[in-house]
Design brief:
By secondary structure, the protein is α+β, with helices and mostly antiparallel strands. About 60% of the residues lie in helices and about 10% in strands. The protein contains 18 helices and 11 strands. The strands form 3 sheets. Strands 3, 4, 5, 6, 7, 8 and 9 form a 7-stranded mixed sheet that branches. The protein is globular and about 70 Å long. It starts with 8 loop residues before the first helix and ends with a helix.
C-alpha cells in the first residue's frame, strides 16, 4: 500500500540526519520530564524519534490513501457559501475526519492542552506530506499553526480555552488583509471598539482574501486606536465563531487550491478579545504569525514539488513514443533530473530553517518558565537570527521551484498535460499562489536583503563550508560552490560600495538568489555525503544548475550601473 512517508525516504533523512534534532527534542521535552505525567510521552531521544516516525508513517498512509484520492473530487466540487457560512466540498469532510481521528491536530502544542508536543520540524514533515496529497486541503489543515501565535502571546486563560479546541480538531484562520490593505497591512481599517456594556471588544468592517475564513477561531488584525492610520494603531484580537457576528459575503472563484475557501468576511459588532497588548498587532504579533505561515508555505511548496515530480516520472515511464518510453529521451530525463534536484535542495533548505525555528522557539518557551542561562540566551539569539534570515529564502525559493516543477510536469505530459483528466494541471494551478500569498517572492527579497548587505549570508556560507562534511568525491563540485560564494561576495561588495538604495533594491533579487543557490548547494552536498544513495544524482545536477544561475546573476550585477535604472522605469 502506498505511503507518502515510507515511499519518500528523503523526508525521514531530513528529520533524523541532523544532530540539531536531538537538541530540539531535549528542549521541547524539558529533558523528557513529561514522561512522568503522560504515559505516551517519550522518555529519551530514541523514544521521541520513534514517536515522530510512527506519526509520520500514519500521516503518510492517510495522505496516500485518503487525501490524495479525494483531491480531484475536491478540486472539481470546491466549497460553497450558504446563508453566510462555508460548506466544504463533501470529501474535505472525509479528510478532516481522518486527520482528527489520527490526532494530527495541535501537533506542536504541549500535552497539557491535548497536543502532541512535537517539534516544528516534525510538523513541517506532516505539512509537506499533506500538501503532496492536496495543497488545497493543506491550507485548511495547516492553519492550526495560528495557535502558535495565540499560545505565544495570549494569556493562560486564553490558552486553556482555545488551545485544547484546536488540538481537538477545530479550525483556525488569520484575518489580516482587506480590500485596500493587501501587502500594506499598515492600511488595515477594520475597527475595534471596546464596549463597557458588553465587557468586550466589538469588531466592525470587512476582510478579504481570508483563507479558511469561516473557521472556528480567528486571529484578527484590527484598528484599536481611534485616529491612527499606521501600524502603531493596530492590535490583534481573538474572535470565536460561537459568538456570532461574522458572515461570509462570498467565496472567491480562484485559479487553484479550490478545496480551500478564500473568503470575504463582514464583521458586524462581532465580539472579540484582545490577544496580547494593544498597539502591537502588526509590529509584533503579525510578524510572528507571518513567519510561521511562510514556513508553512515553504512546506506546501516542497509538497507540490514532490507531487509534480511523482506525476512527471510516472507518466514518462509509461508513455511511449517512437517505440520507447519517453523517460529514455535526454530532453525528458534532463527535466526530471532537474525537478528532483530542485526538490531535494529546496527540501534541505526547508528543514534547516525548521530546525533553526525550533531551537529559538523552544528556548523562548522555556524562558516563560525560568530564566535562561547566559549560554542558552546566546543560543536563542543565534538561532533566532538564522531562522529570520533563512525563512524568506525557504519560502521564496521553494515557491518558485513549485511553479517551475509543476510547469515542467505538464511539459513532460505534452498535450495530455493540458487536459483536466491529468493531475499535473491541478498541481500547476495550485502552485501558482505559493509565490504570491503570505508575502510575494519580491517581499521575501525585501525581508532578506539586509542579511545580504550586512554580510550575514556571507558569514553563514563561510561557516557552512567549515562545518559541513563534504566527501572527497565531491571535491570538484565543492570548488564550484566556493567560486559561487566568491562571485556572490563580489556582487555584494559592488552594491555596497555604490551606496545607492534604489540600485541596491534593483539588484536585490539577483543577490537574494545567489545567496540561496549557494546555501542550497552546500546543503545538498552535505546530504549526498551522508546518503549518496539518495542524493548523489541531485547534488551533481543541482550544483551545476546553481553555478549557472549564480553566473547569470553575477554578470547582471557586474554590468549594471545606477544609470541603467532609467532604462527600466516606465
Amino acid at each position: 500500500m502506498a505511503n507518502f512517508y515510507t515511499d519518500h525516504p528523503e523526508i525521514k533523512f531530513q528529520l533524523e540526519s541532523n544532530k540539531l534534532l536531538e537538541r530540539i527534542a531535549e528542549l521541547k521535552e524539558r529533558n523528557y520530564a513529561d514522561a512522568e505525567a503522560f504515559d505516551y510521552a517519550p522518555s529519551d531521544y530514541a523514544d521521541a524519534l520513534d514517536s515522530y516516525d510512527r506519526v509520520c508513517e500514519l500521516t503518510g498512509d492517510i495522505c496516500a490513501n485518503i487525501i490524495a484520492p479525494n483531491a480531484e473530487d475536491v478540486d472539481a466540487e470546491g466549497p460553497h457559501c450558504e446563508n453566510g457560512r462555508v460548506r466544504y466540498a463533501s470529501k474535505t469532510y472525509e479528510n478532516l475526519d481522518a486527520t482528527v481521528k489520527a490526532g494530527l491536530c495541535g501537533v506542536t502544542m504541549p500535552r497539557r492542552y491535548g497536543g502532541l508536543n512535537f517539534p516544528n520540524t516534525v510538523y513541517t514533515a506532516i505539512n509537506e506530506m499533506i500538501a503532496t496529497a492536496d495543497a488545497g486541503f493543506e491550507n485548511i489543515w495547516s492553519l492550526q499553526d495560528c495557535i502558535e501565535t495565540l499560545y505565544e502571546f495570549g494569556n493562560e486563560d486564553q490558552r486553556q480555552r482555545f488551545v485544547p479546541r484546536v488540538c481537538g480538531g477545530e479550525t483556525m484562520s488569520m484575518d489580516l488583509t482587506e480590500p485596500d490593505a493587501g501587502s500594506d497591512l499598515q492600511s488595515v481599517m477594520l475597527k475595534a471598539t471596546y464596549s463597557e456594556e458588553e465587557g468586550c471588544w466589538l469588531l466592525n468592517g470587512c476582510k478579504r482574501f481570508i483563507t479558511n475564513g469561516d473557521s472556528d477561531i480567528h486571529l484578527v488584525l484590527a484598528r484599536s486606536e481611534e485616529g491612527t492610520k499606521d501600524g502603531r494603531g493596530l492590535s490583534m484580537f481573538i474572535y470565536d465563531k460561537r459568538q456570532g457576528g461574522v458572515n461570509v459575503r462570498r467565496i472567491e472563484n480562484k485559479l487553484g487550491i479550490h478545496g480551500s475557501p478564500t473568503c470575504e468576511l463582514v464583521y458586524k459588532n462581532a465580539k472579540a478579545e484582545l490577544c496580547g497588548s494593544r498597539k502591537l498587532g502588526l509590529i509584533k504579533y503579525v510578524m510572528a504569525l507571518m513567519n510561521g505561515a511562510r514556513l508553512g508555505i515553504a512546506a506546501q511548496s516542497v509538497g507540490l514539488c514532490q507531487a509534480a515530480y511523482n506525476e512527471g516520472l510516472a507518466y514518462a515511464k509509461d508513455r511511449k513514443q517512437f517505440g520507447t518510453a519517453i523517460i529514455n529521451f535526454p530532453a525528458v530525463y534532463d527535466m526530471l533530473a532537474l525537478m528532483k534536484a530542485k526538490l531535494d535542495a529546496g527540501r534541505s533548505l526547508l528543514y534547516a530553517t525548521a530546525r533553526y525555528v525550533d531551537i529559538y522557539k523552544c528556548l523562548e518557551d522555556i524562558e516563560r518558565e525560568r530564566k535562561l542561562t547566559p549560554e542558552e540566551r546566546q543560543e536563542c539569539k543565534k538561532y533566532a537570527k538564522l531562522a529570520d534570515s533563512f525563512t524568506p529564502l525557504a519560502k521564496g525559493m521553494n515557491s518558485e521551484y513549485a511553479n517551475q516543477n509543476t510547469y515542467d510536469s505538464i511539459q513532460i505530459h505534452g498535450g495530455s498535460g493540458f487536459m483536466l483528466e491529468y493531475a499535473c494541471q491541478r498541481l500547476y494551478r495550485d502552485a501558482r499562489i505559493t509565490s504570491i500569498y503570505e508575502g510575494t517572492t519580491q517581499l521575501q527579497t525585501v525581508a532578506a536583503i539586509r542579511y545580504v548587505t550586512n554580510g550575514f549570508y556571507s558569514q553563514v556560507i563561510a561557516d557552512m563550508f567549515a562545518e559541513t562534511e563534504i566527501a572527497p568525491e565531491y571535491a570538484a563540485l565543492k570548488a564550484r560552490v566556493e567560486q559561487m560564494a566568491e562571485k556572490f561576495n563580489a556582487a555584494v561588495a559592488k552594491v555596497n560600495e555604490l551606496k545607492n538604495d534604489e540600485f541596491k533594491d534593483f539588484c536585490s533579487r539577483h543577490l537574494y538568489e545567489m545567496a540561496a543557490d549557494t546555501i542550497m548547494s552546500i546543503l545538498i552536498l552535505g546530504d549526498a555525503t551522508k546518503r549518496p544513495d539518495l542524493f548523489n544524482d541531485s547534488a551533481r545536477v543541482y550544483v551545476r544548475y546553481a553555478a549557472a544561475e549564480v553566473e547569470k546573476h553575477s554578470d547582471f550585477v557586474a554590468d549594471a550601473t545606477p544609470e541603467d535604472l532609467a532604462n527600466y522605469r516606465k
